[in-house]
Structure formats: C-alpha cells, structure tokens
Amino acid sequence: MKNPPYGMIAILFIGAFVAFLNNTLLNVALPTIMVEFDVKPSQVQWLTTAYMLVNGILIPASAYFIQKFTNRTLFITAMSLFTFGTFIAFIAPGFWILVLGRMIQACGSAIMMPLLMNVMLIAFPIERRGTAMGIFGLVMIMAPAIGPTLSGFIVENYSWRILFAMILPFALIPLVLAIFKLKNITPQRDVTLDKFSLVLSSFGFGGLLYGFSVAGDEGWTSWIILLTLAVGMFTLVWFILRQLSLKEPLLEFRIYRYPMFALASAISIVLSAAMFSGMILTPLYVQTIRGFSPLESGLLMLPGALVMAIMSPVTGRLFDSFGAKWLAITGLTISTLTTFALSGLTLETSYASIMFLYTMRMFGFSMITMPVMTNGLSQLAAHHYPHGTAMNNTLQQVSGAIGSAIFLTIMNARMTSWIEDQLLKLQIDGMYPSDAEAEQVIMGELTQKGMLEGITFSFFIAAIVTIVALILSLFIKKVVPKREKD
User: Fold this and answer.
1) Are residues 273 and 242 in the same domain?
2) In sequence order, what are the residues at sequence separation of 6 or more whose Cβ sits closer than 8 angstroms to the Cβ of residue 335?
3) Does 188 map to a domain?
4) Are residues 264 and 331 located together in one domain of the fold?
5) Phi, psi of 345 (to 5 degrees)
6) At CB < 8 A and 24+ separation, what contacts does 199-203 make?
7) Are residues 447 and 298 in the same domain?
8) Tell me, what DSSP letter sits at residue 187?
9) Residues contacting 371, CB < 8 A, separation 6+
10) What does the pLDDT read at residue 1?
11) Higher model confidence: residue 205 or residue 257?
C-alpha cells in the first residue's frame, strides 16, 4: 500500500483513545461509588474485575473476528457496544446495572486495540512501521496519562457519573465518522470459529484473570481462589493443546516458532508485571502512607505518563533507524535503576523526589514496549498478524493482572511479617503498652511503617524482575520479515 489511509486511521485512533481513557478513569472513583451504592470493597472491585474478565474472554477471539469480518463492520460494532455500555453506566440506578454497563463497554473496547494494531501493520511498510507504531503508542499512553488526574479532579468536585457523561460524546464522534467515512483495507478469510476453543479460552484466561485479581482480597488460601486458578490452568493447557491440533485455531500458538516473536512475548510478559506493580504501589504509597489526595496522586503520576506519550513517536523513529535491541537495553537499564531507587522510599521522601523517580522509570519503559512488540510482530507473515496482535494483547492483560496480584501479595506478606517481628521485639523488651489507647497508637505507627516496608520490598522484587527482562533483551535481533502470500 503506497499511501497509508491516514483519515481512516485517525478515526480508529479517536475510538481507541476513548476506549483507553475509559480504562483508567474509574479507579480513583471506586471509593465514592462504594459509599453511594453501599457496597463492600470486594463488590466494588467487580467494576474493574468484570471489565478485565470480558477483555480476557474476547481478546483471544479477536484474531477470528479480524479475519472473518471487515475492519469497518468490526469498528462500528465495537464503538456501538462501547457507546451503549457507557450510556447504561451513566444512568445506572443500581450497582449491578453499573457493572453490566462496564461489561458492555468491555465488549467494545476488547476488539479495539487488536483491530487498530492489525490495520497499522497492513497499512504501513516495514521501514515506516516503527514510526507508525510510535504514534499508536502515543494514543495508547496519552489516554491513561490524563485519566487518573482528570478522574481525581472530577470525583473531588462533581459526581462520578460525569466520568461517563464526558465519555459519551467522544464515543459518538468516531462512531458517526466511521459510518460515513470508514473503508475496508484488512483482507478477509473464510475462517470457521471453533466454539469449544472459545469455551476453553473463556474458562482458561477468564479463570486466571479472576483468580489473580480477587486473590488479594479473598486470600490465596481461599478455596474459591484455588479452585478458580486450578480450573483456569487446566482449561488453558487444554486450550493450547487443542489449538496446536486444529487447522484453523482460535489463537495460533505455532507463531512461537518465530524466535523474535517468542522473545518479544517473553519480554512483554515480564515487563507488564513490573510496570503494573509501579502503577499500583506508587498511588498506594502516596495516598495511604503519605496522606496525599487522589488528585495529588494523579498529578504526581502525570509527568511520567506524559513522558511516555511524548517519547512514543520519538522511540518509533529511533526504532526505524537502529532497531529494538539498544532501545530496549537502554530503557531497561533506566527502569531497573529507578525501580531500585523506589525501593528506598521513606516516610520523609519529598513529593518532588517521588515524582522524579516515577517519571524516569516511565521514561525507561517508553523505550521498550512498542519497539520490542513491533520487532516481534514484523517477523510474522501477514496472515499471522491478527494472531500475533491477539496473542500480545491477551498476554499483556493476563500478565498485568497476575503481576499486580503477586506484587500486592508480596507487599501484604512482608508487611504482616514485619509488624509481627516488631510486636515480638516490644514484648521481649517489656515495652508493649498496657492501656488500650497507647496500644492503638503503637499499632497505627507499626501499620504505617509496615506498609512502607511491604511497598519498598515489592519495588525491590520488581527491580529484580526488570533485570530478567534486561537479560532477555540482550538476545534481540533485527528481523527479516516474512514475505509469503496469504
């Protein structure tokens, strides 16, 4: 394709931006929603868990949808579902109607990123693919960048429903434009859907996502969590074995015979776990331990997200010129050093210092994700692009959820262990208070310091995880793309 269809891609970008923005808007509003609908923390979490579950179920099927239907039909359907879900959430009279609205939103947004990435791979030649993916990264990162800050401001000053009311017109604009302007460029194949694979995929990825997402609240010894994870693992193995035996699989696992794609997947999995840890641990430290407001927490994380967004097109151009290897090595070195620095946070660390370290960490990550992913995808044949993008997005969802749960578990375990040790020392030294009021003060101080100990230890483990990704990046090679016909 000599001239990429920039107008069409712009429409897809607007739709993707709205979907990505929606993903991060609600997190800051969860405490307010919990109070308004009088629900428990374990229930309010369903607003994010249900959204993630629908994504985990639909993203693996996106390869089938992209091959079976035109990009125009898919985009209009996805944006219609997303817009309808947003409206349901806006008017929701009860909590579970709000959850339903979020799930309908997720039905639309789940297909958005795989579809856009597939269109980009087809529309741009390999020598311009890095720049194109960099601009895509700008859209993908800019939305989450402004999400927490914007949400914090709205929740502090207005109703949480404004978050959905604000999204509605921005969802309608790309939908209307798509109906009148969108053309088809993705090739269609007469593929068949293996329904049993879809069932196995739903139980496999859905079970793992649910189990790891809820484990932090329910506890790792809960029989529900253990059963969910066991079912998820069993059906996922069954799903993979079935895909390898099918002529037209739901997800094509045979693409892992391409070494650079397999390496890119491995780095992405490790990186998602480490990156998500910082996105959860930093606000927890800032708000719970240091007492900053949700808006101040959002503002602290804003420069880091903006740096990622600004760097994305720059990184794309650098990728076109130098390839992924040295970008990844440089970015992972910066990310590892700053993550180690965050493991040294104290009760007195200044707001500016936290902001600087978090921003530099995000600066490092900005050099890694898109170049590594693009390098891996470029080794695939064109008819494997839908499977490659579906696989990458599925693994990022799953590894992000698993990473978040594991790092929160590490934090809680370290916190509990530290508090128990301190209480034992006080009892041995005969310094444990005898009256209830003094005991409450001591427990409050120990809890604060214990959580700090847990968070800094989790950052230390995250730094070790980034070292693993750094070692893997040493094996990256510039790919020679496959040219065979579909």
Assistant:
1) no
2) 274, 361, 364, 365, 368, 466
3) no
4) yes
5) -60, 145
6) 200/235, 200/236, 200/238, 200/239, 200/242, 201/57, 201/60, 201/61, 201/239, 201/250, 201/251, 202/57, 203/231, 203/232, 203/235
7) yes
8) P
9) 130, 315, 316, 318, 319, 323, 324, 327, 328
10) 47
11) 257
Beta carbons within 10 angstroms of residue 21's beta carbon: 22
User: Does residue 186 contact residue 120 with C-beta atoms inside 8 Å?
Assistant: no
How confident is the model over 394-419, as pLDDT tens digits? 787 778 777 777 887 788 888 888 88
Residues 58 and 144 in one domain: yes
Distance linking the first and last C-alpha atoms of the chain: 15
Please check the confidence at residue 52 and state whether its pLDDT lies above 80. Answer: no
21-94-222 Cα angle (round to 5): 80
Is pLDDT at 385 greater than 60 in this prediction?
yes
Same domain, 375 and 398: yes
Tokens of 328: 């990844």
- Same domain flag for 225 and 166: no
Structural tokens at position 364: 């490092």
In terms of Cβ atoms closer than 10 Å to its own Cβ (0-12, 13-18, 19+), residue 41 is exposed
Instruction: Report, as an integer, the average pLDDT of 439-459.
Output: 85
Q: What is the distance between the alpha carbons of residues 398 and 207, in angstroms, rounded to a whole number? A: 10
Enclosing domain of residue 100: 1-182
- The position carrying tokens 């990184």 is 315
pTM of the entire structure?
A: 0.75
Asked if 309 and 138 touch (Cβ cutoff 8 Å), the reply is yes
Q: What average pLDDT score do residues 249-268 get? A: 89
Count the Cβ atoms, other than its own, within 10 Å of residue 73: 15
pLDDT over 90 (residue 463) = yes
Is residue 137 included in any domain, yes or no? Answer: yes
Q: What span, in angstroms and rounded, lies between the C-alpha atoms of 479 and 485?
A: 18
**pLDDT tens figures, 267-309:** 988 888 887 777 778 877 887 788 887 778 778 878 887 887 7
Residue 485 included in any domain: no
Place of tokens 């931006």: 17
3-class DSSP assignment, residue 96: helix
CA distance 16 to 74: 13
Q: Give residue-wise pLDDT tens across range 221-230.
A: 888 888 989 9
- The tally of domains found in the chain comes to 3
Percent of the chain with pLDDT over 90: 22
Last residue of a domain, one of 127, 152, 182: 182
CA 161 to chain CA centroid, Å, is: 23
Residue 192 located in a structural domain:
no
The tokens describing 424, both together, are 């034992």
Q: Are residues 158 and 272 in the same domain?
A: no
pLDDT tier at 238, thresholds 50, 70, 90: very high
Q: Is residue 464 located within the same domain as residue 335? A: yes
Q: Which two tokens stand for residue 459?
A: 């950052």
**CA-to-CA distance for 121 and 392, rounded, in angstroms?**
14
Angle between helix axes 161-181 and 126-157 (nearest 10 degrees) is: 150
- Residue 486 reports pLDDT greater than 60: no
